[in-house]
Amino acid sequence: MDYKLVMNTAVLAGEMMLRSGAETYRVEDTMYHILRTAQTETVEASVMMTGIVATISNPDMEPITVIKRVQERGTNLNRIMKVNDISRKYCAGELTLKAAYEELKNIGGKQYRVWVYNLATILVPTGFAPLFGGGILETAAAAAVGCVLALVVTLGKRLQINGFILDTLSSLGIAAAAILLKWVFPSLDEDIVIISAIMPMVPGVAITNAVRDTLQGDYISGGARILEAFLKAAAVALGVGAGMALAGLIHPGGGIL
Question: Please, which residues bridge with residue 56 across strands?
């Protein structure tokens, strides 16, 4: 048995799942099952939101311990599903260790092209506007503001802007664009447009995972996820408030109030 390859496979699987938004207990369970195939006396896998620690050892060998820092996180359920499928096939003996490791390395980063993500970013506000009581005008305005959001997010990711700053800038652009449209169309309900446009930014998955980790007893990861969701919500609120304040200082005719 190649103990190092078993460890590398388990850590790679855990890292990919954690970066894709999987719950802490799910990552630990997947890593534990992979490490158990080494048939060592000691098998430990400890996962936190920002890092992984794994150890295997036998009385006749030096312990193998790996610490992996995980900084980038997002939501990619397709990647989680693929990692789960590979790990289950390996543990069931349907894949060799080397084949499982190679398949994990070959899992792509993004499931869809950038234009598909941007299209979804536009369609989500468009779909929420009627649900919040908006008419045809609000729905069209939400689609236009969604275009602004897609543009800001795409540029921000290419420039590798920090997540908190990017969320603030995105929500600022949403508020400013909605108020500008209000000046052009006085009958427009800008509140519905703003609320609809920020829906793609709501940290629903982070809050759900925070609750699930906390209920599983992973209080460190649960607390960290709650803090992450709070910071994201604070960034959105800060950006919307700043955008409304900035737009309110500028008179539609170009003068300063």
Answer: 43, 64
What does pLDDT average to over the chain? 87
Tokens of 171: 């929500």
Where in the sequence is the domain holding 78, given as residue range(s)? 3-105
Q: Tell me 250's DSSP state.
A: B
150, 234: one domain = yes
Flag whether 189 is in a domain: yes
pLDDT at 109: 64
Nearest residue to 152 (alpha-carbon basis) of 99, 201, 100: 201
pLDDT for residue 255: 39
Could you report the per-residue pLDDT of 45-96, keeping only the tens digit for each?
A: 988 888 899 999 988 888 999 999 988 887 888 889 999 999 999 999 899 9
Contact 14, 31 (CB under 8 A): yes
CA dist 116 and 118 (Å) reads 5
Q: Which of 105, 139, 166 is the last residue of a domain?
A: 105
The beta strand positions in the chain, using DSSP E, are 42-48, 51-57, 64-69
pTM over 0.85: no
Among the candidates 105, 127, 162, a domain finishes at 105
C-alpha dist (Å) from residue 241 to 47, 169, 181, 205, 247: 37, 11, 17, 24, 10
Q: 48 Cβ partners below 8 Å, 6+ apart?
A: 24, 220, 221, 224
